[in-house]
Design a protein that fits this description.
The chain is about 15% helix and about 25% strand. The protein is an alpha+beta fold. The strands form three sheets. The protein has an eight-stranded antiparallel β-sheet. It has a three-stranded antiparallel β-sheet with strand order 5-2-6. It is globular. The relative contact order is 0.26.
Amino acid sequence: MTSPEGYAAYARILFPFVGPNTRVGDSWAPEEHISWHALAERNGRAFHPLVEEETVNVGSDASDYSVSASLAKEQLATLLPILGRHTSSTSGWYLLWEGYGDLKRSVFDGFPTVSHPMRNYYLLSGPLDAFGEFPEDPDYWWPDDRAWCLSGDTDFHWAYLAGSETCVNEVLDAPVLDAVRTEPANPAHFGMGQINPSPQD
């Protein structure tokens, strides 16, 4: 898990599965987004805190679905107002992995960096509502008052939210966010979702 300890509650917010493009007349229909919960139910799999994409995306049409690399627009439209209600700050901090391929390095020259055993990040600060303005979703994001922290990793198809019970419960209650309660002790690695059969079984 890549979330700071010491918060009252935690949630894992899953990026949606994206279905194949379909043509309608002379144009393409919008991509179909399907939640992990809905896909697990469709395929007779359990949806649980350590669920893995490989164990719910099964069956003859599994190759038609891939997982989004970031929060979907409809998820951001729901999540950002929730987080805004649960902080008194209007500005915050961002950690952006310096290894993203489409970053213009010259733009970040002179900014401080933060070293982590796995990755190095640019440390940025600015308005709290600037999250969606980055070329890639920041890997860590928190307000000045540290009321919550949203975090993730380029290798994960989900984000973690650490915050108050009230904040996390509001996220869990929003179906579009496809969130599940978790805790810092829960790992994030291949094979963590042992409730469902593995793809090799």
